[in-house]
Design goal:
With 96 residues, the chain is an alpha+beta fold. It has a domain at 3-53. It has helices at 3-13, 36-43, 55-72, and strands spanning 17-24, 27-35, 80-84, 91-95. α1 (3-13) runs antiparallel to α2. The radius of gyration is 18 Å and the shape is elongated.
């Protein structure tokens, strides 16, 4: 799991903290408890010092996807697939 996934899971589930258990060969080496807001600040930095992700950008992109779904998912009842193809910048919506 990446730090982005951990942060996003916590944000979407309104979980205030993340517990991390470090182990080597099945032997626990230590524990860490991070506040959700601190995941980006403490763990979201790449080795070269650049941010691995920006929470504001992730939230803006999520909001754009939700707006897209609200505008385009009009068939009720309906089943939809949202597809993002590898190396594509576009979302595709399929209605069944």
């Amino acid at each position: 799991m990446t730090w982005l996934e951990a942060w996003l899971d916590n944000v979407m589930a309104s979980v205030p903290e993340l517990a991390i258990c470090y182990h080597r060969n099945g032997v626990v080496q230590g524990y860490e408890l991070l506040k959700t807001d601190d995941i980006f600040l403490l763990k979201g930095i790449s080795e070269d010092g650049t941010p691995a992700f920006h929470p504001h950008v992730v939230q803006q992109n999520g909001l754009s996807v939700l707006r897209f779904l609200q505008d385009n998912c009009k068939q009720d009842p309906g089943a939809y697939w949202v597809l993002l193809f590898f190396f594509s910048l576009h979302l595709y919506l399929c209605c069944f």
